[in-house]
Design goal:
This is Phosphotransferase family protein. By secondary structure, the protein is of the alpha+beta class. 44% of the residues lie in helices and 12% in strands. The termini are far apart.
Length: 340
Amino acid sequence: MTEEELARVARWMADHVPDFAPPLRAEKFAVGQSNPTYRLTSPTGDYVLRRKPPGQLLKSAHAVDREHRVQRALRDTPVPVPRMYALCEDEAVLGVAFYVMDHVDGRNIVDPSMPNETPEMRGAIVREMGRVLAAIHAVKPEAVGLGDFGPQGNYFARQLGRWAKQYEATKTEAQPDMDRLVTWLESALPEDDGQRTLVHGDYRIDNLLFARDRADCVAVLDWELSTLGHPFADLAGVILQWQLPPGAEGRGLRGIDRAAAGLPTDEGFIAGYCAGRGIAVPGDFGFYVAFCAFRMAAILQGVKKRALDGNAANPEKGLKLGAYVPEFARLGWDARHAYG
């Protein structure tokens, strides 16, 4: 952020953030988020600014306005979110929309295997993940002004149709594993059970902040993909992530001795979440994990297609990500009957 941009932000904050006073300093967070995020420091406190990236964007992408809206709506609920101060849609300030929120002090955990934690702390943190996810899904959207935050209808039928069409439009070579996975998902689609809740859309341990010395979650971040939908999409997303290899790229738990590490099994986490919501463990949970794997594969196929067409910001990275399409297709196929 340039000095001129920072000065414009400071003038805007003086009009929209209570008790704010300049001067203002900005430091960009290193974590790779799709929406550039800055820590702002001033004599009156620390804040966080989250903005759309510059350049030509897809109409529905980088929806900082939706992020601001949902976090503001959750302020007085059991879901921990930062305090929202204001949304700026005046492009004269930064050239793009942005919002300013309170800075929450906490630790960000990137690796779900948590190698530097004790088994007791690992187990407590993962239980807290399940508790907070259940709290998100317990929010009544209409009660907090989010009744129109997503479309009506069968969430999985709609999402399956959308991403199957998107996948076909971006297919670059034959993928038999994807084809058979799509066919199976279409045949195994559960009937709509009436569950329609707020869903985060990207619920992972690295999108949460935890207290410095405790397992308490102090903030849920990165609500860009949030909508109204089926809560099992969030739950299955956690389980799918854990099937990936550990380390900086996979950020999974594949091959980890979970009992020795103090971490729950997939089934244990699912059962704990369902107990927190007071619902029965679904007997067909494999469908939801398979669906999440398919959706990720379809997303990565689109990334690969853009890289091959020369429309990606980083073609090399796009091709690297696209190479994971067959792996996610296999993960989805293997998940079909793995649960329940």
